[in-house]
Design brief:
Elements: H1 3-6, E1 12-18, H2 22-34, E2 39-43, H3 49-62, E3 68-71, H4 77-83, E4 90-93, E5 99-101, E6 109-111, H5 113-125, E7 130-134, H6 146-153, E8 159-162, H7 173-183, E9 188-190, E10 208-211, H8 224-235
Parallel strand pairs: 1-2, 1-10, 2-3, 3-4, 4-7, 7-8, 8-9, 9-10
Antiparallel strand pairs: 5-6
Helix pairs in contact: 2-3, 6-7
Length: about 240
């Protein structure tokens, strides 16, 4: 299914849960669900992928109809696809596989053979979820022209996903506007720095928001009132 077949509202709010245990994940997913989030991403910063998978299955048991995506920070994109449960709704990869080479003289060139290959792997796998691919993303190789790179990624990613320079930092407004100007109706997601206080500055050019820090009390614990506030803002944007 396409992004718009899955998420029919103008803006999508996906809460990112930094998983450390099954109990913690279930508690925080429950907060997200009861306070208006459209789904969740489970991500492993401090645990191994096998623990993330185990947690995913426990969360799925408790929330069988919830949209749940995964981001395996300790796996390559190819291995992540192999390990991905077939009933997972989303896969988020920080490095979408498009890189820029900037010579001393002349225009930059872009290499996207891996992005193209990974799209083929996704299609051949038979998995029916949504692929969120990182473009001009924190911690990845720097690109001088995010809009051009985003345009190259349209055939390969279900949701082009970008960020600010680091966790908790919102992206430059001009960057988001330029990326959306190139990709048009193709979905664009922001995955850092969005809060209830600044989200309205991005809604004109952004389809989907992946949020952890901006709705949390700590790295691992969501704040219910912040989740509800942001959900309500997006519902009326």
């Amino acid at each position: 299914m396409s992004y718009r077949e899955v998420f029919k509202k103008k803006h999508t709010f996906l809460v990112v849960v930094h998983v450390v245990s099954v109990e913690q994940a279930l508690r925080n997913v429950g907060i997200a669900v009861t306070n208006g989030a459209d789904g969740v991403f489970l991500i492993n910063h401090n645990i191994q992928f096998k623990e993330l998978l185990y947690t995913y299955h426990r969360v799925r048991e408790q929330f069988p109809l919830l949209w749940i995506g995964l981001n395996f920070l300790d796996l390559s994109s190819g291995r992540a696809l192999v390990e991905l449960p077939r009933d997972a709704n989303g896969l988020w990869i920080d490095d979408g596989g498009v890189h820029e080479e900037t010579p001393k003289v002349g225009p930059s060139t872009y290499h996207y053979s891996w992005a193209k290959s990974f799209r083929r792997l996704l299609d051949r796998s038979g998995w029916k979820g949504l692929y969120f691919g990182g473009v001009a993303f924190k911690g990845q190789s720097y690109v001088t022209d995010p809009a051009t790179v985003a345009g190259l990624c349209v055939p390969f990613m279900d949701v082009i996903t970008t960020s600010g320079v680091s966790t908790g930092n919102a992206p430059d407004h001009g960057k988001i506007q330029e990326m959306k100007g190139v990709i048009g109706h193709h979905p664009l997601a922001i995955a850092s720095g969005i809060t209830p206080e600044n989200v309205l500055g991005y809604t004109l050019y952004t389809d989907c928001f992946l949020i952890a820090t901006g709705v949390s009390d700590s790295f691992t614990e969501l704040n219910p009132s912040k989740v509800r506030k942001l959900a309500d803002i997006l519902a009326n944007a």
